[in-house]
Specification:
Chain lengths: 783, 253
């Protein structure tokens, strides 16, 4: 009745009386005792009256106190809208790639499992009486694909599952956040047990698995889909290799092969570089042995990324052939940069540069310092000196080609019968070598290089006179516009004005070699703030491409100030180290500093995954080129690069996309890896008048993890059911009579509390009854 | 001091003439590009010694040097213009203030080199005691160790058996190693005492032992400068074989 009064629209379907007071139990007890005392006083004070009158007065007192207690206890009506829920049975269906392998019969493990569930009466009962939630899982839990859901209702042909890993525990953990323990009647894991994550090879439940099962609060059952006997198979279990190797240094690739179901067999194991077989071993299967290990060692002789494939021959009647082959890429790097540092005289500039070069782990340094010249006067016997002859022929004729970078630091060729080697040095640079000339009184024009072969490769003309070759004043070099972008001058992580300020904050330099005007293709990175040459500021740091090689000049011999004097003002030598580190990398054509670079974001893509391709385009001075149209193409890679103007004629690209470079000189494209294979990403762009290309290699392949271990593993599922207090079943045993927990079935969707005590009628009665008691007491002569 | 024959005399004379006709300073990059020595402290205890050493270095090597030393304190803003400091002492001294000690420590860790020359009289160990406690305070985590006589400083230009000076008190140097170099070297043989001359060209102080020791002291000083500028250059593989061959020749003539 009350419910009809307070819920005339019928929005709630359940009502109950409740007390809404906020007081503690102790306070309530005290109030009740007080009420009892008042009743006792009423009884005591009315002893002189007849029983009827006495009972009437006590009754009035009791009613009054009950009404007052109502104010205190605040009775109310709780209205609730309650729905009746079905509990959940969560089914985790393994859709990793190993479920595509044969089960007991001819069907795949996945197909057998789906059929078993679909044909089971228990499955139909579960669906009637419970909410059956079926999830797919591989590396993680995901919604069930629509076609698999349909196959659970009626027979249907399905594509093989392609999940790249099996992680049962992660799937169970993901359930934990989806359900309250009281809602879950049971969990059923349908899998072949080939877990390759935290439960790999488990025979007993781990502590973590027990905790996961406990948090779910429902029995965990398992339906094992695998065959009892492993399939006949030869599999490349693991291929181990470094992601990079050094050119002309031995590289080892290790392979583990697992053989199941064969006892007398010989198969080739072959390593391919691109399409070309480079090494082969024989796998001789012997009885009782299933695992075999192979080492392949070879010496890469070319820089860059290369694709390799390791393949085991196919055995007769082999069940799975996809796991006989794995492709991978290895980046072949330069071992160490071989630097020849030739110094005309010991100096602080030489000392700090040598220390920098010595400390660089990528530099193999050969130094030659001229400690004494023909002008030196010291008749000490040579056996008392540590000096050795300057091996000019060995350095500049025999071994010159073995160096990546030659540094002439305040060094003059004069006096060492070296003039005939200068053309060789020029040709060395033209053919790809790096050359750094650092100033001083023995360098550039004052070193006698005017009209020599070295002058041809320098980025500026040298004065021909013998005076005014050097200015000795202090100066702070000025960063040019080209210097703002060029990779050499990036001495901090900052760009733009902040970079300019960083340069201005470095200690001053002293002394500069004068020049006689820049050559047209010279790029000045630092210039003198006031001196000019040929109408332009005198260059301090200048770069130039010469043939295939690169040249850097520093027309001062006091850059050591940046490596030492910077400490005087609380700084450090980081700018100095970065500057020369950048310079060495640029001079040696570090691929990371190439004007156009393209890179796939991964070396290996899973089948069906999406890859991001990124390109960066810069001008010779390192400035990003914006708005340049770029064409990305992907070719199947057969060992021949398509990164040339004939690329498209050398084979049709399987994918093409165009993009424009942004303000940072970058452009992006996305590529979907739909077919297994090895691919070359080729980017083509226009840089000035020149068509430029860059390329990267990548592999598209299913994760070898799932198919390397083809044996089903019932022990893992038994460990899961032990942890979850459930039952382990095979497909033959089915799911009949699997126990389910009795779960909560009611759910309150809406609730409202209506206070009864605050009604005006209650207040009226609470006033009326004490007045009545007072009136009758007076009437009976008690007051 | 030096064995001269006719060939070396003619060679030396021609070289001197060439040097005079074509001085190194003709195209020099200025004073700041020259290798200079800074003396730590307020007083030069061995006047004209550095000048004489630098003069010899200029004459004997390709190094472009500034002859005149400067006196400097660790807190000077010009400290880092001189990667080589020399501290000559001959008696007790006030311990460095904490600020000076920190400045010197930072300088040595940044790449500077300090050579300490004990010029005390025989039997007076007060400078030695003071300097050892200063070094301990400067490098609390690195001990002052006896330097091997195979150290690069003994072969950076001349092949030397051990350290030399005016007073052959110790047949070895002591040093602190840091960052694959030797930023602090301590010698007790009054190295710079062997080098000073008066305006008339006479040596200021007599040698303990033969006059040949004076030449060896100059060689030691020259090697110090070579080590400061070239660090372990002579430890490079390319030099090692030649140096070993010559040392063996010297041991087994």
């Amino acid at each position: 009745m009350l419910q009809q009064v307070f819920d005339p629209e019928g929005a709630f379907n359940q009502a109950s009386l409740v007390l809404l007071h906020p007081f503690s139990t102790a306070i309530c007890i005290a109030v009740f005792l007080l009420a009892a005392l008042l009743v006792w006083l009423a009884i005591r004070n009315s002893r002189s009256l007849s029983f009827k009158r006495r009972a009437f007065l006590v009754g009035l007192r009791v009613v009054t106190l009950l009404l007052l207690l109502g104010f205190f206890l605040q009775p109310g009506l709780r209205l609730e809208q309650v729905s009746r829920m079905r509990d959940h049975v969560a089914v985790l269906l393994d859709l990793s790639r190993s479920m595509s392998l044969p089960g007991e019969g001819r069907q795949s493990r996945m197909e057998s499992a789906i059929e078993t569930l679909r044909e089971s009466d228990t499955w139909a009962t579960w669906q009637r009486e419970h909410q059956v939630d079926v999830y797919a899982f591989d590396r993680k839990l995901s919604p069930l694909p629509q076609e698999v859901a349909e196959a659970l209702q009626a027979p249907k042909k399905l594509d093989p599952p392609m999940g790249e890993a099996t992680d049962i525990q992660s799937a169970l953990q993901a359930l934990d956040v989806r359900y309250q323990p009281q809602d879950l009647a049971a969990v059923l894991v349908v899998s072949d047990g080939s877990d390759n994550a935290s439960l790999k090879g488990a025979t007993e439940p781990t502590a973590s698995l027990r905790a996961t099962a406990e948090a779910l609060g429902a029995p965990i059952h398992a339906l094992f889909t695998g065959p009892k006997d492993p399939p006949k198979d030869v599999a490349l279990l693991h291929v181990q290799h470094d992601s990079f190797a050094f050119v002309r240094n031995a590289l080892t690739i290790e392979a583990d092969v697992q053989v199941q179901g064969y006892e007398d067999l010989t198969l080739p194991v072959t390593l391919y570089q691109g399409e070309k077989p480079i090494q082969s071993r024989l796998l001789r299967v012997t009885e009782g042995q299933s695992n075999y290990h192979f080492d392949f060692e070879f010496v890469p002789d070319l820089l860059g990324k290369d694709l390799f494939t390791l393949e085991v021959g196919q055995a007769p009647d082999e069940t799975i052939v996809e796991n006989n082959r794995q492709s991978f890429s290895i980046q072949v790097l330069r071992d160490k940069i071989r630097v020849l540092q030739v110094v005309g005289r010991p100096s602080w500039d030489e000392r700090f540069l040598r220390k920098l070069l010595e400390e660089n782990p990528n530099v193999d340094l050969i130094s030659f310092f001229i400690l004494r010249t023909n002008e030196s006067i010291d008749p000490t016997r040579s056996d008392e000196l540590s000096l050795i002859p300057f091996p000019t022929d060995e350095l500049f004729h025999e071994q010159l080609g073995s160096f990546d970078l030659v540094i002439f630091q305040n060094f003059s060729y004069r006096g060492y019968r070296m003039r005939q080697y200068l053309p060789e040095i020029r040709d060395y640079v033209q053919n790809g070598g790096g050359f750094l000339m650092i100033g001083g009184d023995l360098a550039f024009a004052s070193g006698g290089y005017s009209d020599t072969a070295i002058a041809q490769l320098l980025p500026f003309e040298l004065p021909s006179g013998k005076t005014d070759l050097i200015d000795v004043d202090r100066f702070t070099p000025r960063l040019t516009e080209a210097g703002l972008h060029h990779p050499i001058t990036q001495i901090t992580g900052d760009r733009g004005e902040a970079l300019r300020q960083a340069w201005e904050g470095l200690p001053q330099l002293t002394g500069i070699n004068r020049t006689a005007g820049l050559k047209p293709d010279a790029i000045v990175l630092l210039e003198h703030p006031s001196l000019t040459a040929g109408g332009a500021p005198e260059p301090v740091m200048t770069v130039r491409n010469y043939g295939l090689g690169r040249v850097l000049t520093l027309t001062t011999d006091t850059t050591w100030h940046w490596g030492f004097q910077s400490f005087a003002e609380g700084g450090d030598s980081r700018a100095y180290y970065r500057l020369f580190g950048n310079a060495i990398r640029w001079l040696c054509r570090d691929p990371a500093l190439q004007p156009m670079q393209v890179k796939a974001d991964r070396d290996r893509y899973a089948l069906g995954s999406e890859g991001s391709m990124q390109l960066r385009l810069t001008s010779d001075d390192g400035a990003p080129i914006e708005g340049s149209e770029v064409t990305f193409r992907v070719f199947e890679f057969k060992g021949e690069s398509h990164a040339n103007p004939l690329g498209s004629e050398g084979g049709m690209p399987i994918w093409t996309e165009t993009a424009k470079t942004d303000a940072q000189g970058t452009a992006f494209a996305r590529f979907k890896a739909e077919k297994e294979g090895t691919y070359e990403l080729v980017a083509e762009a226009t840089r000035g008048d020149e068509l430029v290309f860059a390329s990267d290699l990548f592999v598209v392949a299913a994760n070898p993890l799932e198919l390397s271990e083809t044996k089903a593993n019932s022990d893992v599922l038994k460990a899961v059911t032990t942890a979850g207090g459930g039952e382990f079943r095979t497909l033959k045993q089915g799911i009949d009579d699997l126990p389910l927990k009795t779960a909560a079935v009611l759910r309150v969707n809406r609730r409202q509390d209506v206070p009864l005590w605050s009604h005006w009628l209650w207040l009226l009665l609470a006033v009326l009854f004490p007045c009545m008691e007072w009136g009758f007491r007076r009437h009976y002569g008690l007051l | 001091m030096i064995d001269l024959n006719r060939r070396s005399f003619i060679k030396g004379s021609l070289a001197t003439l060439a040097a005079l006709l074509c001085p190194k300073s003709l195209w020099a990059m200025g004073e700041e590009a020259q290798v200079a020595i800074a003396l730590l402290g307020e007083e030069n205890l061995r006047p004209t010694a550095v000048e004489q050493l630098m003069w010899e270095i200029r004459k004997r090597t390709s190094m472009d040097v500034r002859e005149k030393p400067v006196l400097i304190q660790p807190e000077s803003p010009h400290l880092y213009e001189y990667p080589l400091l020399v501290w000559i002492g001959d008696g007790p001294f006030e311990p460095l203030s904490e600020a000076r000690r920190q400045a010197l420590s930072r300088y040595l860790r940044a790449g500077g080199t300090l050579f300490i020359d004990d010029a005390s009289l025989r039997g007076d160990d007060r400078f030695d005691q003071g300097i050892r406690s200063e070094i301990a305070a400067l490098w609390p985590d690195r001990p002052l160790n006896r330097t091997s006589n195979d150290h690069t400083i003994f072969r950076s230009f001349y092949l030397l058996e051990h350290p030399y000076g005016r007073m052959p008190r110790q047949q070895y140097l002591e040093s602190v190693e840091y960052d694959d170099r030797t930023p602090l070297i301590y010698g007790r043989n009054d190295l710079f005492g062997a080098m000073g001359r008066d305006p008339l060209g006479h040596w200021l102080l007599p040698m303990e032992g033969s006059e040949h020791q004076r030449e060896l002291a100059f060689r030691m000083g020259l090697n110090l400068l070579m080590y400061a500028t070239c660090s372990h250059y002579k430890r490079d593989q390319v030099h090692t074989l030649a140096i070993m061959r010559r040392r063996r020749w010297r041991v087994d003539p």
